[in-house]
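Model: You mentioned two targets. I'll fold them one after the other.
Researcher: Yes, keep them separate.
Model: Target one:
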Amino acid sequence: MMPLYKKYADTEPIGTLCLGNWGGLEILDIEYGIDDYAIACFNWGTGRQQIRRHKIMYTPSGRSYIRKQGTRYYFDQMM
């Protein structure tokens, strides 16, 4: 299996969340199955960092989010 950093090195993000003046969180892909996963990374203008698979979770009210480094990032806040 190809490593994530090679597979998603040149792909366009499907969603972004601004976390500062120089960059933020990028959603690169969604893997659908019994449990859905998002491929996400940080990009601060120097290239993609920490490309990882994250399980998509839901709040009791139905908001979807991923957890990266202990912080919840909600999909309804991304562009």
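Model: Target two:
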Amino acid sequence: MKFKIKIKGKEYEVEIVELEGGTKIKIGDKEFFFQKEKKEISLPSVSFKKRDFLKKEIRAPIAGTISEIFVKEKDFVKKGEKLLSLSAMKMENEIVSDFEGRVKKIFVKKDQNVKEGEVLILLE
């Protein structure tokens, strides 16, 4: 990106170039390179009990109609287990569990239309 700036009445041509390792800025005939920092992140000790961000939600990958539900509330499911079938674009899509856990709540019923991203089942 090139542009001109005026500092104390003097005009300078500025060029900014994003590079993989950082940013090069050229002002007039001088070049400056700013290297990207590699930041290490250390997380504090966290208790994982009932945190909202750890909810085991099964969401609809696409919009469609629930054609069959294979589990009921309080069932224990394993990762990869078939939970329900979603009919979309003249195809049956099997929705499997991404988690292991107990079915806490089923938010949908057979023949119900769902939107992409809608929560279908919550595991605990």
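Researcher: Noted. Anything on target two?
Model: Residues 48-53 have pLDDT under 50 and may be disordered.
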